[in-house]
Amino acid sequence: MTLSSRHARRGSVLVIVIWAVSIGAAIVAGIQISSFRQAMLGSDAIARVQARWAARAGVETMIAIMEYHTDNPDPEDALAMIHDLEDNSYGELETGTYDIRHFFDGRELAGPLDEHSKANINLLSGELMNIRDMTPDVVGAITDWRDSNEDAGMLGAEKSHYQNRGKSYEPRNADFRSFAELELVAGVWPEYTRGEDWNLDGRIDSNEDDGDQTWPDDKSDGILDLGWSGILTALSRSSSRAPSGLPRLNLAIATPEEVIERTGVTAPQASALLAYAKLPNAKLEQLLMVPLSTLSSGGTGSSGSGGAGAAGAARQMNGSNSGSGSGGSTGGSTGRSSGSRSGATGGATQAGPGDLDSAAKGRVLNECTTTEFKRPGPGKINVNTVSGEVLREVFDLNPKLVDSLLSRRDAKPSGLTSLSAVLDIPGFTPQILSPLAKQLDVQSFVFTISSRGRSKTVGGNSEIVVTVDRSTLPAQILMYREP
Known about the structure:
By secondary structure, the chain is an alpha/beta fold. The chain is 36% helix and 11% strand. A hairpin with a 5-residue loop joins β11 (446-455) and β12 (461-469).
């Protein structure tokens, strides 16, 4: 073999080696890129799992706090649980954090959303017409959706209306079970119900504060327009639990001793309350406007729900005057203490149970009922958490009265512990409060928790939205979703 041939052969081998090295390097690079991508995907998956469990930890924390306060209530502090929920709305774990917030009444607030801060659509009738963008035909359709018959109202819509328009559903003919169900009603548009909160989680998302860049259209002002979802709910529920944690005392079947023990009223007052409770359509809210002595002596106030039967039964059961006692005695219809009542001559003290003072009225309203509790129904509004928007827009309450209520309520660290305390607020009279009392309460049972979890490693995010009813132990989850 010549020298030139030997050099040519070595050159060919060198080329082959270079090609082999190049191909090997390409393969190694490809494997590295693939491995890096797999590692990134794995890291993202781990981050999502960490974020999800962080969000879940927030939900579990809120539920645990609710159950604790259900089992250990403080009747002297109506806001004890609310403050506890707010204080624990943010938490750090080893691998992530959770943050629980909600947007309400134009502000972002810490903690879960109190469903009792809104008006339950299943309890509203004429008040619906006060709501913005609500038209008579929509009100009629909502009414027909809830009622139990198939007769359409003048502007309503029943089964045939939906069938004629090719809908695959028909009116429930019962209460709404969720707020989103409202969008099935004829004439209701999501733009009205959701506003800018398109996923109904009660929190500002990036696409809900960017103007017209992405759906939905919004004002990009840092304020979340909740639409009707900010003032209406279908999730609040009634409960037999009193603020003391005990089942409410049914005056229709209770004994005088039970009434005295639970409310601290005098024996004659207890007898008068029991007699009144046995009358048809007896409502404890009447005590806010009509003194007990008037009810027990046959007076009816403006609603006419008293009656002579109460007078005879009360006199037969107590047969004596009441002292001042723990129930106190008041004059007029304001519920404020003013000493014993006098007769027309101004000298002799009237026989009767004596009127309840404000504190005694509050205990009776909180601890007692006149009806048997069978199953949860639509919940009342908590006067301690209700927004000014609900009071102004749904109930058309004077804005000055609303401001007075909110400022007095917010100035009390323990909140308003009974509806009778509202009468101490300037401007509120028994005549104003009594019609609202059937919609109001001082406690809440259903909360929606919007918990956002975040991983500490890569920054993955996850959100869980859970609606919880704390009136039972263990608490009951009414709704669960991950937007």
